[in-house]
Specification:
single chain; alpha+beta; four-stranded antiparallel β-sheet; elongated; 4 strands
């Protein structure tokens, strides 16, 4: 018996490392998002910062790999236009 493939998009866990700015670089924090892509996660992060009027610098974007139990760097999305 064949199983029907789901057409729903697969979500992955992303974490975005940020801080309050160059003068506050000693205190880094993370935001976590479920998204389809690193670009989507970064977009959510930037929209949240804009809505709450928070100024910050984004340092990295990482995707969680549930098979290796490691965070994989996806920071190349920072150089792309969101």
């Amino acid at each position: 018996m064949k199983t029907k493939k789901s057409d729903d998009p697969k979500f992955f866990q992303y974490r975005i490392k940020y801080n309050a700015g160059a003068s506050e670089s000693a205190l880094n924090s993370y935001h976590y998002f479920l998204a389809n892509s690193a670009k989507d996660a970064l977009s959510f992060h930037l929209k949240m910062a804009k809505k709450k009027k928070i100024e910050m610098q984004t340092l990295s974007v990482e995707k969680y790999n549930p098979y290796s139990y490691k965070w994989e760097d996806r920071s190349s999305v920072l150089n792309q236009e969101v």
